[in-house]
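Worked example 3 (structure in, sequence out).
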């Protein structure tokens, strides 16, 4: 494998990334930022991407990069991509006091001309609390709620609702919350009974009408990251 100093990113790629509204960064195998677009600079609250390019995570002067535990997790993710370049990783990142809203970071392998993995590309999307059919219904995206919008569902049930509305299966939710699949299934049935519905689509509609789809449970308000890859047998985890 070539040394990282030989990694040259085509200007057409960096110029395209720089036009994107979503934050994007290219990182080498030592977690050194090769290129960050202006949107990432705004996320990090630094004057420009020159304050990010060429720096390792611990060298970035941004509140988002101050926490050592977070930096170590990010490096572990980068290494996982290098060790298994057939996967992508997605992380739900929540950093109170460092960013205005949660975001989802997708990490994918960066290959050279010989199909060798020499780093990773990170694409960030701010967490959206709407589904495509919201536009059909004429609704705009809303902000996340930090206070439970009602008492019909308790906090533990709201944790399940939050993950279920992100498209997770009962098994995946069980893995994230360290509960059994049977417990999640029973909880879902109790919530169906409370809502007076029989199907998931009806339950989602019930939650949306009462703003439960916008509620971010307290469990996820501390610095946590929800990770999952894109394979069919993906493992989900909450650090």
């Amino acid at each position: 494998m070539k040394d990282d100093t030989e990694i040259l990113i085509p200007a057409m790629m960096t110029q395209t990334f720089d036009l994107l509204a979503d934050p994007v960064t290219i990182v080498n195998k030592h977690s050194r930022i090769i290129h960050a677009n202006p949107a990432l600079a705004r996320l990090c609250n630094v004057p420009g991407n020159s304050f990010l390019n060429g720096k390792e995570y611990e060298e970035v002067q941004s509140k988002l990069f101050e926490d050592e535990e977070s930096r170590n997790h990010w490096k572990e993710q980068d290494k996982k991509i290098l060790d298994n370049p057939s996967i992508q990783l997605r992380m739900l990142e929540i950093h109170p006091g460092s960013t205005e809203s949660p975001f989802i970071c997708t990490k994918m392998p960066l290959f050279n001309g010989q199909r060798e993995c020499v780093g990773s590309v990170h694409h960030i999307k701010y967490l959206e609390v709407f589904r495509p059919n919201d536009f059909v219904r004429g609704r705009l995206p809303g902000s996340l709620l930090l206070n439970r919008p009602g008492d019909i569902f308790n906090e533990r049930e709201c944790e399940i609702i939050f993950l279920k509305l992100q498209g997770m299966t009962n098994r995946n939710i069980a893995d994230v919350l360290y509960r059994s699949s049977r417990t999640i299934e029973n909880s879902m049935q109790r919530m169906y009974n409370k809502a007076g519905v029989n199907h998931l689509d009806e339950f989602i509609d019930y939650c949306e009408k009462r703003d439960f789809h916008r509620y971010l449970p307290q469990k996820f308000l501390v610095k946590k990251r929800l990770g999952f890859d894109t394979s069919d047998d993906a493992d989900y985890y909450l650090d």
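Notes: The beta strands are 24-28, 33-36, 89-94, 103-111, 117-126, 224-229, 237-238. DSSP finds eight helices and seven strands in the chain.
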